[in-house]
Structure formats: structure tokens, C-alpha cells
Amino acid sequence: MYKSLIRPLLFKFDPEEVHHFTFSILKNFGFLAKLFLPKPIEDKRLGREVFGLKFKNPVGLAAGFDKDAKLFNELSDLGFGFIEIGTLTPKPQAGNDKKRLFRLKEDSAIINRMGFNNGGVDEAIERLKKNKNVLIGGNIGKNKVTPNEEAVNDYKICFEKLFPYVDYFVVNVSSPNTPNLRELQDKKPLTELLSTLQNLNLEKPKQKPILLKIAPDLTDSQLLDIIDIVKETQIAGVIATNTTLSRENLVSENKSEMGGLSGKPLTKRSTEVIRFLSEKSGKSFPIIGVGGIHTAQDAIEKLEAGATLVQLYTGFIYEGPELINEINKAILQGK
């Protein structure tokens, strides 16, 4: 129903406007979705315990969809095992100029250059106080106006403020849409950033998992550095991967737009990164696999490559909520 009726209608309009329209519908009429969508699969065999947290199933929603923690309860009702909010910054910011979100229909992809548009961490916290037992990841970043040499402070602010309200943290230094942000992926600044956050974490009576979200555009040498950094800082794991700057083999008219590319063109590369990290690290830390999951088989391949959990974003937009059930069914059939 989604792909035959709802998606063709939604895709006639500007993608960012459709995003806000969909949020409004789910917020005010989410109960109707339960009438038209298949009932989410609930099976104890889908449960996973990863970095000390219990997930009801291994299929989560990636950051960027519910940036401001406006819809995590309703999205969880669709069947997601966990919801990652953000990327949040200390201060509100409008993000980059519009138009900044583009569909690549022929490639089943999206290009975005949103630029961490969000209402700020304090506003999100007020909504998170209304959490109805949804497992929440908090994806954190720096404000655009904050120079890289002061970026650690932005991450510290978000970490301290969000700590009581999220179950795990994701450090985002891999978005291509904030100027110079990816420079923080270099070994020295990244080690400093993660060590600082981990030290804050260790001061708490009970620690929370800290994960690093990485770009798919890293070289093998850089990925080996990531493995070393994870071991040195003792963070909980890695999310692989964020959007890519590559434009290889695209055919859609929007293929040359600036920004990060997500969707099917990323499927193979993100799985390669997962496999590399898993094998070269000796499976020494958990990996959340994300990037180009449009079918149950895409998710299974990431799990087989070494991911412990998976996340959807662009595939969720193109394939609809039914994809969550399809993945969970495939996982159960493989048991």
C-alpha cells in the first residue's frame, strides 16, 4: 500500500515539506497508521543485548529523521527496536539554505545538505522527558559557528545535558554538511574528543555507551586508525556508515547536488566498511550497520558482515514501514 499509493503521492512534493507533513500526520493521526499498517512483529528471539542495553529487535531508525526528538514514541510504534535522535547541537541553528534535500528516484537515493538544522539540545530534552519507554540514542555534534579547536566543548555540553535522557550516545564527526567537521575524524583530534567524553562518562555513577559514527569515504588506513582509537579510548562501538561524497554511477538529474548521498548507492560500500572493521578488529567491538538498506537481504548481509544491529533511513522513506517487519521476519527465518 505504501509503495503503490502513499509514496507516489508524497514524491510529487518537495521532500523537506513532505517530511514535516508526514511528521504532522503521525503526531496527530498516528493511531490511524495502526489500522493500515501490518502489526509490528514482537518475538523474544529478536531481542539483542548490546553494550549493556536490551533491544527488543535489532532494527533501529538512524539519526537525521527525528532530529529534534519530536516523534520517537510514534516511530517506535511502527516496530523499530530503537530510535536515534539528532544530530543535536548545543545551540539551535537553522542549518544550510534551502533547497537542501533532493530525491534521486532513479537511484533510490537522497542527497542532503541540511547542516545539523535543529532546535538545540535543551528543546529536545523537554520532549525526551515524555519518553514512553523507547530506547533512545542521542546523536551529538557541534554548532556550525564553533571552530574545530573549540568543538570538544560543544560535544561536552550535549553529552552532559542529554545524559539523563538517552540510553547511548553517538559522536557525529562524519557529516559532510558542516564545514571542516570531517577533519575531526583525523586520529589526534578524534582521540582527544572521544577520550574527553569517555572521561566524563567514567565520572558518572553508571556509564552509558558512546559510539562513533564514521564516513564511508575513509581509506583502509583511516579505518585501521578508527580501530586503534576505539581500543585506546574504550568507547562502546562504531556506527558504519554516514552519507558519502561519492557520486559514482548515479543517473538521476540531481546527482551533482552538493551534500551527503544516502540510499542504494551506499549499500555495498557500507557493508564493506562493516566487514573490514569487524575482521581487522577481531570482532572486538559492536558495529551498528547503516547505509543502503532497502531490502531484508541488505540488512542480513550487514549482519553477516559483522554488524550487531542495523538502522534505516533512506530505505525507510523509499520502502515504507513494512521494511521493518520484512527484516525481522528474515532474521527469524534464519534462526
From TrEMBL:
Paste the cofactor note: Binds 1 FMN per subunit.
Alphabetical GO biological process terms: 'de novo' pyrimidine nucleobase biosynthetic process; 'de novo' UMP biosynthetic process
The entry's localization annotation reads: Cell membrane; Membrane
Sites binding substrate sit at 67, 112-116, 172, 177, 242-243
Q: Principal localization?
A: membrane
Q: How does it sit in the membrane?
A: Peripheral membrane protein
Ranges for the Dihydroorotate dehydrogenase catalytic domain? 47-331
Q: Where is the active site?
A: 175 (nucleophile)
Which UniProt keyword terms apply here? Cell membrane, Flavoprotein, FMN, Membrane, Oxidoreductase, Pyrimidine biosynthesis
Catalytic reaction(s) noted: (S)-dihydroorotate + a quinone = orotate + a quinol
- Give a Gene Ontology cellular component term annotated to this protein: plasma membrane
Q: What is its EC number?
A: 1.3.5.2
Q: What is the uppermost EC class here?
A: oxidoreductase
> What is the superkingdom listed in this entry's lineage?
Bacteria
Residues binding FMN: 63-67, 87, 139, 172, 213, 241, 263, 292, 313-314
Name the needed cofactors: FMN
Biological role stated in the UniProt entry: Catalyzes the conversion of dihydroorotate to orotate with quinone as electron acceptor.
The family assignment reads:
Belongs to the dihydroorotate dehydrogenase family. Type 2 subfamily.
Name the record gives this protein? Dihydroorotate dehydrogenase (quinone)
Q: Which organism is it from?
A: Epilithonimonas hispanica
List the lineage, top down.
Bacteria, Pseudomonadati, Bacteroidota, Flavobacteriia, Flavobacteriales
